[in-house]
Amino acid sequence: MINWQRLRQLDRDWTNRITIVDKRGKVRSLAALLARSGDSWIMMPVLGFIWWRGDNFWSHWGKILFLSILITGAVVQIIKWSIRRERPVGSWGGLVRKTDPHSFPSGHAAKAGLLLGLGLYLGPDVFRYVILIYSPLMAFARTQMGIHYISDVIAGFGLGVFMSIIMILRLVCF
């Protein structure tokens, strides 16, 4: 039998060990930058511009990522509003805490997993190398900054990878 109470306590304990939001220094600054870099208000205009202004390869690439992020974001929001898990207590990410009060699954981590899967499939090679490093760090930074529990990030990242497989199959099959 699964002891859900024990699992929730382990999740809180692991999250508390990882959180660095109250510490000063370069690692915290990097974590804050990484955690913010996955914000939709940053990614979507950039991808929209690439879709609009890129050559054939980049326009196709931007369109796929833009639409995949929209679809994945909708799935994340349906799950979040169904489960309604509160975010960890904290003050960092005040706007997110007000506009998106639910924690599970992490939408940023879902975006990171999606970008990893699609980036590895779509390329180019330089993007594959960058995304292999960036995606897990961006997702992990959400826990470091105290905006998500570690289980939110793991579930979100897994959901994003799953959604990338669905998108890839859709691209290959149609």
Can you walk me through this structure?
The protein is an all-alpha fold and 174 residues long. The chain is 78% helix and 0% strand. The chain has one domain. It is built from eight helices and no strands. The protein is globular and about 50 Å long.
What proportion of the residues form beta strands (DSSP E)? under 5%
Biggest sheet descriptor: none
Number of helices: 8
Tell me, briefly, the overall form. Answer: globular
Give the H and E element order. Answer: HHHHHHHH
Number of domains: 1
Number of extended strands:
0
C-alpha-based Rg, rounded: 16 Å
Helix residue percentage: over 70%
Task: Catalogue the unreliable spans.
Answer: none
Query: What is the average of the pLDDT values?
Result: 90
**In angstroms, what separates the terminal alpha carbons?**
43 Å
What is the SS-derived class? mainly alpha
Question: Could you give the topology of this structure?
Answer:
Layout: H1 4-18, H2 26-37, H3 40-53, H4 56-83, H5 94-99, H6 107-122, H7 125-144, H8 150-173
Helix pairs in contact: 2-7, 3-4, 4-6, 4-8, 6-7, 6-8, 7-8
Summarize the structure.
The protein contains eight helices and no strands.
